[in-house]
Amino acid sequence: LRRQRQMCIRDRSSEEKVEENRIHGCTSQAWVTCKRNGEKYFFQTDSDAMIVRGLLSLIERSFNDHTKEEILDIDGSQFLDSVGLGRSISSQRTNGFSNAISKIQTELLD
Question: pTM of this prediction?
């Protein structure tokens, strides 16, 4: 299972690592892309830092295969606390993670 997860979070293509997909406010370089299939959304994330990749994989696991309304209902400021990581992550990483959720939710509103 660990090997499968590592394969799922491998580097995304350089075409996806563009400014439009970049997550701003993150201390590392990080990107998110979105695809829609009917009413459901699917996200892919990547970062140049392994810890950020791991954190962003939580977004993929939690947001993928959900509707716009379900995703917009998620409180980004409380997400890490809800999975038990709120006090384990530096404030810079927490801010970057919240920015990733905010970027996704803002783009869903556009």
Answer: 0.82
List, for residues 85-96, the tens digit of each pLDDT value: 888 888 888 888
Of 1, 17, 21, 26, the active-site residue reads 26
- Residue range 24-49, pLDDT digits in tens: 988 899 999 999 999 999 999 999 99
- Helix runs in the chain, H state only: 2-8, 50-63, 68-72, 79-82, 91-109
Active site annotation includes 26:
yes
CA distances from 35 to 5, 25, 43 (A): 20, 23, 6
How buried is 37 (Cβ within 10 angstroms: 0-12 exposed, 13-18 middle, 19+ buried)? exposed
Residue 72 in tokens? 């917009």
